[in-house]
Write a structure and sequence with these properties.
With 305 residues, the protein is an alpha/beta fold. The chain is 27% helix and 26% strand. It has an eight-stranded mixed sheet. It has a three-stranded antiparallel sheet with strand order 7-8-9, with no helix packed on it. The protein is globular and about 55 Å long. The protein starts with 36 loop residues before the first strand and ends with a strand. The structure holds S-adenosylmethionine. Its EC number is 2.1.1.-.
Length: 305
C-alpha cells in the first residue's frame, strides 16, 4: 500500500483558498521538507500525466467482474481485519502532521481552556489518534474503525486512556454513529485515508453519518489519495473496479480523488468547504533511484452553524 511512509508534511504555505468546485489555479508553493523528498507543492492543479502514464491509464479499461466486486464489498471488513492480522501495528507510520494541522483547528475552541472533542473516523491502529492526544492534553477523542482487530490494537496501546479516549467498532457505511457519540457534540472529525477504502456509492452515507455528530460550526479534516498518485499508476490490469477505483492484492480497495469529486461529495452532504487542495511531492526511492510522484488531497470543511 502506498501510504506507509505518508507521515509528515511541513507547514503548508497555501495559495488562496477556494470553495467552488471548478476554479483552477496554478500551484505556487514549493516547500523543501525532508531529505528523501525533493519538494512539495500545495494548490489546485491536478498532476499532469506524461504521455506514457496517460496511455497506460487509457488502456486499462477492463473492470473486475460484478460478481467479484460484490464479493469485495461484502468482505470489505474481513479484508481490513486480515490486513491488521498480518501487519499488526507495524504498517502505517504515526501521522504527526495532523497535530500541525490541528493548530488551525484550535480555532474551534471558543475559549483557550475548552476541551476539544474529536472523532477519528476509521482510526486504524491509532497512528493519528495517539500523536494527537499526546500533543494536546486538552482533547477527548472518540475513535472508530470497522476492523475489530484494529480497535483492539487501539485499546491495547499503552497510551490508551479511557478518560481521554473512547474507541469502538463501527462500520461507517451502515452503523449509526449516534449509537456511540451524542448528536452535535464533536468539534472536529478526522477522516484520514479512509474514504478511499469505501465504495464510491457509499461515501455520501459516511459523510452524512459524520455530519450528525459534528457540532454546528465543527470541522471535518480530510486527507486521502489524490488523482494520479504514484500508487494509482502502479496497479496492473485486472485490478480496476471503476473510474479511479482499484483493488489491491489483499482485497482492500483504493479510490483516487480529484478536488472536484470531493467538493461535490462534501457539499452534497451539507458541509461548507473551506480548503480543498492537492498536496504533491516527489519522493526519491533511493534503492531504485526513482523519483516517485505522490499526490494527496487535503480538505477542511465545516458544518454550518
Ligand atoms: C488506510 S487505513 C487508515 C487508518 C488511519 N486513519 C490512519 O491514518 O492511519 C483505512 C482504515 O479505514 C478503515 N475502514 C475502511 N472502511 C471502513 C468503514 N466502512 N467503516 C469504518 N472503518 C473503515 C479500515 O479498517 C482502515 O483501518
Amino acid at each position: 500500500m502506498g501510504d506507509t511512509k505518508e507521515a509528515c508534511v511541513t507547514e503548508p504555505q497555501r495559495t488562496e483558498q477556494r470553495s467552488d468546485c471548478t476554479l483552477r489555479e496554478k500551484m505556487v508553493t514549493v516547500t523543501p521538507y525532508r531529505p528523501e523528498a525533493t519538494f512539495q507543492t500545495i494548490g489546485h492543479s491536478a498532476r499532469i500525466l506524461d504521455p506514457e502514464e496517460a496511455e497506460k491509464l487509457e488502456k486499462d479499461r477492463n473492470l473486475v467482474s460484478d460478481f467479484k466486486q460484490e464479493k469485495l464489498e461484502r468482505e470489505a471488513q474481513k479484508n481490513w481485519d486480515l490486513f491488521y492480522k498480518r501487519n499488526s501495528t507495524n504498517f502505517f507510520k504515526d501521522r504527526h502532521w495532523t497535530t500541525r494541522e490541528f493548530e488551525e483547528l484550535k480555532a474551534c475552541r471558543e475559549f483557550p481552556a475548552q476541551k476539544l472533542i474529536v472523532l477519528e473516523a476509521g482510526c486504524g491502529v491509532g497512528n493519528c489518534l495517539f500523536p494527537l492526544l499526546e500533543e494536546d492534553l486538552n482533547i477527548f477523542s472518540y475513535a472508530c474503525d470497522f476492523s475489530p482487530r484494529a480497535v483492539e490494537f487501539v485499546k491495547q496501546n499503552p497510551l490508551y486512556n479511557p478518560e481521554r479516549c473512547n474507541a469502538f467498532q463501527c462500520d461507517l457505511t451502515k452503523d449509526n454513529l449516534l449509537e456511540n457519540v451524542p448528536a452535535d457534540s464533536v468539534d472536529a472529525v478526522t477522516l484520514i485515508f479512509v474514504l478511499s477504502a469505501i465504495h464510491p456509492d457509499k461515501m455520501q452515507l459516511v459523510l452524512e453519518n459524520i455530519y450528525k455528530v459534528l457540532k454546528p460550526g465543527g470541522c471535518l479534516l480530510f486527507r486521502d489519495y489524490g488523482l494520479y498518485d504514484h500508487t494509482m499508476l502502479r496497479f496492473k490490469t485486472g485490478h480496476k473496479l471503476g473510474s479511479n477505483f482499484y483493488v489491491r492484492q489483499d482485497g482492500t480497495r483504493s479510490f483516487f480523488f480529484s478536488d472536484e469529486y470531493v467538493c461535490r461529495l462534501l457539499t452534497a452532504a451539507g458541509y461548507e468547504l473551506l480548503v480543498n487542495e492537492y498536496v504533491q511531492r516527489e519522493t526519491i526511492n533511493k534503492k531504485e533511484g526513482l523519483c516517485v510522484p505522490r499526490v494527496f488531497l487535503q480538505c477542511k470543511c465545516k458544518k454550518p452553524k
